[in-house]
Amino acid sequence: MSNTFEKVRITAFNTAACHDLRILLTLDIEPTFSQCVIVIDGKGHLLGRLASIVAKQALNGQKIVIVRCEELNVSGSFFRNKLKYHAYLNKRCIVNPNRGPFHFRAPSRIFYKALRGMVAHKTARGAAALDRIKLFEGVPPPYDKMKRMVVPSALRVLKLKPGRKYTTIGRISHEVGWKYQDVVAKLEEKRKAKSAAYYQRKKAVVALKSKAAASKADDLKSVNESITAYGY
């Protein structure tokens, strides 16, 4: 009996650890993984689909960091998902609630619990897989300077039918007791402003380099032809 596996492509450029290494991860019959840490931007991903892919890759040995967990999406309207969460709050140990189950409020912990349910976390292999995964709200250093990737097979715009209702995990978390939505939003504004300034400086440097190369093109013509002859 043949098994069918969905192929998932994740491409990375210019990460601090990889030095211009292009990584192509294909989730197939024999998944491969990279020694480099893969940073995934959680914004716009469906929670369950992303969790299943990340769990499988972690079990195969891949180290993964997921940032902006507060921007993860769940299908269904906000009100519907809020009712589901409140129903989940009723599930507790009547004798001693300290025994669990524990109801996480932070978006990263909600996503962690979804991941944990997809891994045999009580075994050594499952525990090691969960240790390879890091989850964050916002984009803290040093991941703000690393290339962030997406998982196409988990993107809401590709996998959820147009017009369907959806909600953001950060909004649900805020409604049920997460206290740091405003703090994360303020830090994200600072990070985006800093990133935009860096991008403008980078564009200016690239423009100056292009201008300098164009002005010296005639002087370096013979040199460039010699280099081209050797295959460079």
UniProtKB/TrEMBL annotation:
GO cellular component terms listed in the entry, alphabetical order: cytosolic large ribosomal subunit
Keyword field: Ribonucleoprotein, Ribosomal protein
SUPFAM superfamilies for this protein: Ribosomal protein L13
Sample GO molecular function, one term: mRNA binding
GO terms for biological process, alphabetical: negative regulation of translation; translation
InterPro entries linked: Ribosomal_uL13, Ribosomal_uL13_euk/arc, Ribosomal_uL13_sf
Source organism, top-level taxon: Eukaryota
Gene3D superfamilies: 6.10.250.3250, Ribosomal protein L13
Family to which the UniProt record says this protein belongs: Belongs to the universal ribosomal protein uL13 family.
Matches recorded under HAMAP family: Ribosomal_uL13 (MF_01366)
Protein name: 60S ribosomal protein L16
